[in-house]
Amino acid sequence: MWGIELLRQREVSLKRQIYQTLRDQIINGRIEAGEVLPSTRELAKQLAVSRNTVCEAYEMLLAEGFILCRQGSPTRVAEGLYIDRSPGAEAYEEPSRHAQPILADFRTGQPDLRHFPRFQWYQILRKAYEEMPLSQLGYTGPEGLLHLREEIAAWLFRNKGLVINSQNIFVTAGSTHGLHLISDLLCRDGKGILMEDPCHMGMLQVFRSKGYPVYPIPVDAQGLQVEYLEEKSACAVYVTPSHQFPLGGILPANRRAALIRFAKEKGIYIVEDDYDSEFRYCGEPVAPLYSMDPQRVIYVGTFSKVLFPALRIGYVVLPRQLHARWRYLRTHTDVQNPPFEQAALAEYLRSRKLDRYIQKMRRLYGERRQVLLQSLEEKFGKEWHSWGDAAGLHIALEFPGMCFDKQFVNSSKRSGIRITPVEYHSICKGKHQDKLLLGYGHLEPEEILKGVSLMYEFIKDYFDIFHTQIK
Amino acid sequence: MWGIELLRQREVSLKRQIYQTLRDQIINGRIEAGEVLPSTRELAKQLAVSRNTVCEAYEMLLAEGFILCRQGSPTRVAEGLYIDRSPGAEAYEEPSRHAQPILADFRTGQPDLRHFPRFQWYQILRKAYEEMPLSQLGYTGPEGLLHLREEIAAWLFRNKGLVINSQNIFVTAGSTHGLHLISDLLCRDGKGILMEDPCHMGMLQVFRSKGYPVYPIPVDAQGLQVEYLEEKSACAVYVTPSHQFPLGGILPANRRAALIRFAKEKGIYIVEDDYDSEFRYCGEPVAPLYSMDPQRVIYVGTFSKVLFPALRIGYVVLPRQLHARWRYLRTHTDVQNPPFEQAALAEYLRSRKLDRYIQKMRRLYGERRQVLLQSLEEKFGKEWHSWGDAAGLHIALEFPGMCFDKQFVNSSKRSGIRITPVEYHSICKGKHQDKLLLGYGHLEPEEILKGVSLMYEFIKDYFDIFHTQIK
Q1: Distance between CA B24 and CA A86 in Å, rounded?
Q2: How far apart are CA A373 and CA A386, in angstroms?
Q3: B132 is in which domain, residue-wise?
Q4: B331 and B380, same structural domain?
Q5: Is B134 an interface residue toward A (CB < 8 Å)?
Q6: B110 CB near a chain A CB, below 8 Å?
Q7: Which residues of B touch A23 (CB under 8 A)?
Q8: Whole-angstrom distance, CA of residue B60 vs CA of residue B153
Q9: Would you say the C-alpha torsion B344, B349, B350, B352 has a positive or negative sign?
Q10: Domains in chain A: how many in total?
Q11: Within an 8 Å CB–CB cutoff, is residue B177 touching chain A?
Q12: pLDDT tens string A12-33
């Protein structure tokens, strides 16, 4: 009857099944405009359902204008409802994920989650949840929870010596999110951004994905080469002065001063991404560039690396003149962060648990770094040297004379080795083909040893070298 | 000595205090380039600290390039470090928030949080947390948790009869976030968007904040007036067909069909924002436009209204051809949602708790709506009529002959009444000056009665009317 087949076991009610079938038939044109539908009594009888069920289905069709009912007239299908649907995309399969198993995983930016004190975090989250005022389930504003902003200010003071008013701190959903908003905040009238080259490909894509122009400034072992700074119609310079990504340099004081003088002269901002300087293995964390000129430097920080990536909490420190527009943009981008993790993080900071956790992980990562360097030396002898400062969760290696291109990456992937050449993160290609990045933070010492060993075998075969030295 | 004043009670270590003071003096130019610093032994003695402390401070300065040490030579300040800092912004005070107390709060889009089963949600969150695999603390992809996407698909089928492959569902951080990404996804080459007028001011600002052109299409009591649709170099039409915001119409089937034919002819998308159709007080939820052409309609949903705003979880349903670019944009916008709320929501859906909660709230909101309508009738007699369908958390009222302008709003605010004229949400001003929006979802019946009473007194005085009728 009218193509209606009722399935009584389904969770969808019978009236909805009737409604849907009739509706679909009308849209498809199988029931035509003006056609008379059976009376509710008649249809109920034919489908063996109560008349009420059919009445309700007809009411739904009527409310949405699919049918017309007039006192004393039969129910008819309304006009102008037929649609020739757009052709559907081909049925498709999810991209296959049964790739080669990963035997050596040197990806960068992976903190070790296995050592994260989940139970402790969970207890804090619970407490935060229990104590949360009801109002925080509603909208709490684009700045982030005040309590968290105050704790971040105190933490930045304890750990990096920054004196920051919590009013200048805005909570974000991580560095990428912060940079996304900064790009919309600053890049106007076709202006672009000056970026370190090489730099983190993900951060570069934040700007590129919106079509904002990017102007590369080369980087050496000490970081940004300030002598190459040129105006280029830019609104800001993006830098990682505490630990250049990917090459690892700490920007020296004279370059910092030159950078700030340049920005000041051109009237542009400096975006300082301090993504992992908490993990520095000799000496204290480096003082942020921010402290040298808080009116010109936008400081971007994150808790993804020190806690866990899925937390999705970071922050930016903004000069006063950008506050209003930040609030406006955040409100119309994604409104705000959820409050639970914010409250938990505030407590994690207040109770100094984060300080202790970072200390513990710094020791652990430092040991892993040693294991990595030592095993590289054992395997590769003097054929390499490392770049940059003893910090972060990855290391950049130079193998003079070798060339790590796409073919190398694909081939290594087929051998189960996940490794990134510096070239991947380069804007102007061709300058860093002899360098590899090894992320080690997430690897246990035995995983590092095994990984280096596999990598050594692979590189030896791939380049057909070391034979002479070894034999 | 060198301006160093050590505070031994501070949480900042002595070495850091020494380092910071010297660094600041160098940047300020109070210690000049080339100047010789005291030996570590000497400075330690003068400051009464251990020599180690001073050594460590000097090492930090050395690492960052503030000073130069050469074997056999005294330690000197490096060149080129002096910066004339940018002038600081004036010290400022937070905008004062001790405004008039709110006596009648008719803001729109506020669900009632007091009835939210916090304890139940908390138990589910706890379970989700305990059962969460460690890998979900890392990056889990821009699509959202698979389990949640499957549960959303099942829920959309149960509640709105939509048959959607979970692969087409992408989790967002709420509707605003969804729309923000959609605008970047679709608005290219200067193309804009056709929008209902009036429409939600917040949603309009999502497009405006990025400079994308917006073309208004007028709305009547039934929703979008499809006869005014014009191409206008747009990439999409934004509509709220299940419950037009703010006027409340349900788009009738013939207009739906015309809208889809228009979009098809012009080769553009339809963005369907289904922000609150779960709360419909007569009959079932309206079937989304999506079901009429899944290849052309992008369906935007949210859990902010049905659960609580701070949850920050929504979703979009995208046709296959937009998946890859969505993934790319999400990855470079804010990466992903946090996993905890996602897992909890999946369980809340799976166990049908959301279905029951919506049912309960629908009854409650429906009762409040009745109370509101009744008390409006008691107070205002026949001087008004309501617009739109019996749905959602607000109602649009027309008071023929009255004019609710900015002055009215400011004046009502001073009297402690929070109320929004439809005009606030209008793109082309001047067409809806006789209409007010009353949000009632978050108000208990006695709050509604008191609010209407206050509003009546206020309007009576403000327009100096009703006197004749009353006396």
Answers
A1: 66
A2: 8
A3: 116-355
A4: no
A5: yes
A6: yes
A7: 287
A8: 56
A9: positive
A10: 3
A11: yes
A12: 788 888 888 888 888 877 788 8
